Amino acid sequence: MRSSPHEARRVHPSQSSSKEPTTESESHVPTAAKTTTPVKMDMPLAEDRACDLADITVSFTTIKLDHDLAPMLANLPTGRCECPHWGFLFKGEMTVRYPDTGVEETVHAGDAFYMTPGHAPAATAGTELVMFSPADLMAETEAAIMKAMSAQH
Q1: CA 24 and chain centroid, separation
Q2: C-alpha distance from residue 7 to each of 20, 30, 83, 100 (Å)
Q3: pTM of whole model > 0.85?
Q4: d(CA 43, CA 152)
């Protein structure tokens, strides 16, 4: 007997939703939880736990130090993040700038958000969020960030 109606439906983040369920413990609705999602990046600035659910990357991010991602996005073709992101801010504050238009908006704890392509975000220490992004575009963005981080060391 399961303790919750969702317990048997939980699928480990490493499983793809494109796989057909073959047992009662597998699901058509894969899920991810911060506590079980593997750490992808653990840097002085932030910890990022991420997994792919089909073609969507789910990222649980904790910001450790105030920082601006703009310098780390300079390796991308436009110098900005061209990956759209949908998410929710649990704690803290994030400022999203759109250099082409001069628009700057602040996302606060408790806000759901959608960042359109062409943004450059910054966040304060202690910020916690979950973000959903197209996996292919997120991989390009992460590669540029890692290249920038390795050049700093």
Answers
A1: 29
A2: 18, 12, 32, 46
A3: no
A4: 12
Domains of the chain, by residue range, sit at 1-31, 32-152
Domain 32-152 bears CATH identifier 2.60.120.10: yes
How many angstroms from the chain centroid is the CA of residue 132? Answer: 6
Residues 65-85, buried b or exposed e (16+ Cβ, 10 A)? Answer: eebebbebbebbeeebbbbbb
CA atoms within 13 A on the CB side of 61: 27
Contacts of 50 (CB under 8 A, 6+ apart): 37, 38, 40, 57, 58, 59, 60
Each residue's pLDDT, cut to its tens digit, for the chain (153 residues) gives: 334 333 333 444 444 444 343 344 566 888 999 999 999 989 888 999 999 999 999 999 999 999 999 988 888 889 899 999 999 999 999 999 999 999 999 999 999 999 999 999 999 999 999 999 999 999 988 888 888 777 765
Beta bridge partners of 113: 87
Tokens 């704890």 correspond to what residue? 109
What separation, in Å, do the N-terminal and C-terminal C-alpha atoms of the chain show?
52
Six-digit token string for 17? 């939703």
